[in-house]
Amino acid sequence: MIVRKLQDIRKSDRNVKSEGWESARLLLKDDNMGFSFHVTTMYAGKELHMHYQNHLEAVLVLKGKGTIEDLGSGVTHRLAPGVMYALDAHDQHIVRPETDILCVCTFNPPVTGKEVHDETGAYPADTSAPREHALAD
Length: 137
Prior knowledge:
Strand order of the largest sheet: 1-2-3-10-5-8
Structural class: mainly beta
Number of strands: 10
């Protein structure tokens, strides 16, 4: 069993900050769950261009509001608490937070924890083998 506290993750190297967002990564590849699990804040007023070419992602908005634009279809969807979106076709997209957006995210395959978006908006593919379970606190 893995048990972790969000407040502890936010003080560790599992809390990754980048331009426009911050992500507390509670489960990572080394946890051997087959997915990673994050609590992420996307900051108001930023325009986040993303294109996960190597990962599928599902996101549930807990707080905040904004929009997500599907660049493939040109359709824009409203984001608000209770809205889930899944990038099931490696969808190129732009998130435009109007307020800070707090959400939970899962990635498949799981991320290692050190990724930041590259110039295309993607996380690089990780081809290393998973390690044994990391110890819980």
